[in-house]
Specification:
This protein has 299 residues and is an all-alpha fold. The chain is built from 14 helices and no strands. The chain is globular.
């Protein structure tokens, strides 16, 4: 049962939250903040609690679609609630426990009078809960992709920044633009394997609504938007080294673009490859952004 619960937790996906928070902290360090372990742990605890909540509630409320899906390393849920490994209620209870934990950390920031983190924590809680869960269940409306980009690529890095600065500035906000574009691309890609299962269960995400062929255009636009967002961030004060994010476009974006342009996504294996390359694009974008700021802070 413990192994099944670990599978339900999908711990590998927490990397996105750790990297996003790390980027915000790196920007704060670049601006002169001291990154103390205690504060870092507190801010990261807020992000990770809500991140885990999303994993658990997603598996619980998405059981019908997951039961039909062809599971890949990056799509189709954990499978732990649909293959009998765990009772379905475990997912809901675990999600509620993580929600309570995240709100407790948010209240700890409020008790200190740190209202920027308080507002960010509440915003992450609301949007992360609404992604999978009723009454909004945004992932089934065509708004889930934008919601994920907002939470993971924008609010989480801003939380990493505000943990140490207790504010949000233009530089921190602008530096999330390439991440948001990369997250949109990633979300479209990870939805590729499950279109038929999602459509059959009323999960009307963007790829279901548009079809795979038209959704590819969104990915192309998002890859180009990574470059535009990078340029805007530099124009608004990001170090010139931030241009290293362009490497993610050339390497990760180029590989993904060629895969989609070839039209090779008819088989389950090809669709799984699209999902993998979408995830790779996002991770490489975040890592490049962190490297740019961390190298400047340590210089």
């Amino acid at each position: 049962m413990f192994a099944a619960f670990l599978r339900l937790s999908r711990l590998k996906f927490l990397v996105g939250g750790f990297l996003g928070f790390g980027l915000g902290a790196a920007i704060a360090s670049f601006e002169g903040a001291a990154l103390t372990p205690g504060r870092y742990a507190l801010g990261q605890a807020l992000v990770t609690a809500f991140h885990l909540m999303t994993h658990y509630t997603n598996d619980y409320f998405d059981r019908a679609s997951d039961a039909r899906a062809t599971r890949t390393a990056f799509s189709g849920g954990s499978g732990a609630l649909v293959d009998g490994s765990l009772p379905a209620a475990v997912g809901l209870v675990a999600g509620l426990v993580c929600l309570a934990a995240g709100l407790a950390v948010t209240l700890a920031f409020a008790a200190r009078g740190e209202w920027t983190m308080t507002v960010l924590g509440l915003a992450i809680a609301v949007f992360a809960w609404s992604y999978s869960s009723p009454p909004l269940r945004l992932l089934a409306t065509g708004a889930g992709e934008a919601t994920t980009a907002l939470v993971v690529a924008v609010l989480v890095p801003l939380a990493g920044y505000a943990t140490f600065m207790d504010r949000i500035d233009v530089l921190a906000a602008a530096s999330t633009l390439p991440l948001a574009a990369a997250m949109i691309a990633m979300m479209i890609c990870v939805e590729f394997p499950d279109v038929e299962a999602d459509a059959a269960t009323g999960k009307r995400n963007l790829v279901v609504r548009l079809g795979r062929a038209r959704s590819v255009r969104i990915v192309y636009g998002a890859i180009l938007a990574i470059g535009l967002g990078t340029a805007v961030a530099i124009a608004l004060g990001a170090p010139v080294r931030f241009a290293i994010v362009g490497l993610a476009i050339v390497v990760g974006g180029g590989t993904l673009w060629r895969t989609l342009a070839s039209g090779r996504y008819a088989s389950p294996a090809d669709r799984a490859l699209v999902a993998f390359r979408g995830v790779t694009l996002y991770i490489s974008t975040v890592l490049a952004a962190i490297l740019a700021y961390a190298s400047m802070a340590l210089a």
